[in-house]
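User: Could you check the structure of this?
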Amino acid sequence: MPDVLIYDTTLRDGCQAEGIAFSVEDKLLVARRLDDFGVAYIEGGWPNPTSPKDREFFQRAADLEWSTAKLAAFGSTRRPGIAPEDDPQLQDLVASRAPVITIFGKSWDLHVTEILRTTRDENLRMIEDSVAWLKTQVAEVIFDAEHFFDGYRADAEYALECLRAAAHGGADCLVLCDTNGGMLPHQIHEIVTRSRAELATPLGIHCHNDAGTAVGNTLTAVIAGCTQVQGTMNGYGERTGNANLCTIIPNLELKLGVQCLLPGKLSELTSVSHYVSEIANVMPDHRAPYVGHSSFAHKGGMHVNAVMKDPSSFEHVPPETVGNERRILVSDYSGSSTIQGKLRQLWPNLDRNDPIVAEVLNRVKELENEGYQFEAAEGSLQLLARRLRGELENPFDLHGYRVSVLKADEKSEPYSEATVKVSIGDREVHTAADGDGPVNALDNALRKALTELFPRLQQVQLVDYKVRVLTADEGTATKVRVLIETTDGQETWGTVGVHANIIEASWQALVDAIVFGLLRNGD
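Assistant: Sure, the predicted structure tokens are below.
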């Protein structure tokens, strides 16, 4: 069994984040991926009558086989003045068929008297009664002490009495919650240490990130004795989010030597993070620790030189341990080591003193001075290097394009049409196509001209298009930079174009994207 049990609440607490809404199918997909990843618990939601999606999720999940994780249904203690067996909400939890039930109860007297409008003694009875009755219905009950740290600071003895009430009821784990997310690590350590000394029941930790300390607070709590960690993938959650398991898990395993996944699973972390963000329809944070696209990206020339000699000089862990990869960025900060590292993707045995290294470096600096940026445009960079070395034979030659944008009247939608003329060997092709916009029309026309001779082009799809104004002081005559991201389903590459005319900048990036895609596929 792992040293620390990971309790994932992405499908419940994570769903409370602004802009995130999972369907039942989404929740099942995420749950299966988390189970395969090796978390110990998956909190699926609150299966009450106002959450039909959560009720359906648990009913469908109960008929599936789970290899690692236990599903947990979430709810609250009974209401004041009612027996637990008569509380409909507790009955709904049992009806979910989840093998684990997690209930929260108040541990801050402010919430007891001002929010619940009941007495402190009745709150203690609510906690103990609810846990005790649920233990007669299911094998495992977890108690979340809501607002525990704020409650402890207001009245430490009462907060601890709330934990004791849950322990007397038979709770299998007592989870200390920083619900407002305002604690600092030294406060967490002091309070967890005291709680650990007072109670024999295992403790867990549940932190929110309102003060930006959720990860640090969670790690501190583990050091102080907590053996269950609650959090969400990518830190999704209400307000500023929950403790981010994508940061906590590698810190536990790689920094503290605390096992929380099955052996070998940590290398799947980046793919799991991106999988969940894809299902949630949220762009991944490219600066996220461990799993971000920029986590192991190196830009400064001296840094790159050092990393190529010894990666540990500027990397705190090897990127492959978390399923990520090292990236060498090219910019006007680049030195010859950076360029050499990038060009070795084309020519693996390239020597740093090869003239092409200095030639590409100088040309990159010239182009970046004109507004180009190659950090996210490695497709354009590789084409540039191959052209400078005389090794690029274009699969087609361009003879021009024309783009029209028409709008019949104020009520109609604008209409775009493009014509392109290209030659492929001795054959000249002149085609036209329409599109949702001028760039889409150009893309369609160019594909129409090329696809017959290059059928693999059907697999190459534009997936992102960004425009940035470079100098605002020239008004509508300013230069713009267009960055296009393209994929063939296996690899994704970026290309760039710069011009005062947005159509020409787009054309440059679009042509590079297609040429790179054709060359990658051997055409």
